Amino acid sequence: MVVLADGREVDRGRCAELLGSPTVPETRTLVEAATPPPRRTPSAATGDPVAEVRGVTRRYGTVLAVDDVSLALRPGEIVGVVGRSGSGKSTLARLVAGLEPPDTGTVALAGRTTAGRRLRPGYVMPVFQDPVASLDRRWPLWRTLAEPVRARGDTLSREAAARALADVGLDVDLDRRPGSLSVGQAQRVALARALLAEPALLVADEPTASLDVATTAAVTDLLRHLADRGTALLVVSHDRARLAGYADRVLTMAAGRLD
């Protein structure tokens, strides 16, 4: 195994030695970030649900993607959903966020069904599984980050935008465009945009899938901090061990059902 940092080799050795007894700071950081401890004290989430689905079902042709699922998310709570590909996780996330209507059942945001909702801009912020496609390739990063802030009638300084990127471990020119970013960098921009909106509900589909383990640890700490300030989060992931380190509940989805 070879460990790189800032374009240079900082460590080399057999896997068992480097992973079992790391001595170089860069290697130690990576190993520690890759093995998060489980969360021991789940939040006692109280208050009315920020979002709630009751008996929702969603079909795509003959495929039953979500089958009679009910779930409530309260302020300050992180709910993780794990499951195999095709189990219905992403469809459930879109239903909770109000991005798709259910075939049957109801979706309520802030206590009102999505059909008649009048919510403030940024009440719900999604972080999509494909971060590159979720960013407008014509826009500089500055405009992307400012979009949810401007939607609620506020302004965003370049200094605040730079701080938002720094919070997710990114230091890039605000005038760059998404096409010049890696997938992992685009994901961090999408996360920063969502956080700037100060949402009541953040729905994230595989938010750390394209990130290295050190950046993943920093981002999950940031998500936990956001929840501790009162935001409800629904996080879809394949990484149960990672979710267990910062989520209050981890639920399993299989064949459209939630357990």
Topology (elements, then pairings):
Blueprint: E1 2-5, E2 8-12, H1 15-20, H2 25-34, E3 51-60, E4 63-73, E5 78-82, H3 89-96, E6 104-109, E7 112-113, E8 124-127, H4 141-151, H5 158-167, H6 183-196, E9 201-205, H7 213-228, E10 232-236, H8 240-244, E11 249-254, E12 257-258
Parallel strand pairs: 5-10, 5-11, 8-9, 9-10
Antiparallel strand pairs: 1-2, 3-4, 3-6, 6-7, 11-12
Could you explain how this protein is built, in words?
The chain has 259 residues and is of the alpha/beta class. The chain has 2 domains: 2-30, no CATH class; 75-99 and 114-258, Rossmann fold, CATH 3.40.50.300. It contains 8 helices and 12 strands. The protein has helices at 15-20, 25-34, 89-96, 141-151, 158-167, 183-196, 213-228, 240-244; strands at residues 2-5, 8-12, 51-60, 63-73, 78-82, 104-109, 112-113, 124-127, 201-205, 232-236, 249-254, 257-258. The model has no long low-confidence stretch (mean pLDDT 89). This is Peptide/nickel transport system ATP-binding protein. One of its GO terms (biological process) is transmembrane transport. GO terms for molecular function: ATP binding; ATP hydrolysis activity.
Helix content: 25-40%
How would you sum up the major sheet?
6 strands, mixed
The total of beta strands comes to: 12
Look at the helices and sheets and give the structural class: alpha/beta
**What would you report as the Rg, rounded to the nearest angstrom?**
19 Å
GO molecular function, one term: ATP hydrolysis activity
Domain ABC transporter: 51-259
Keywords: ATP-binding, Nucleotide-binding, Transport
Family: Belongs to the ABC transporter superfamily.
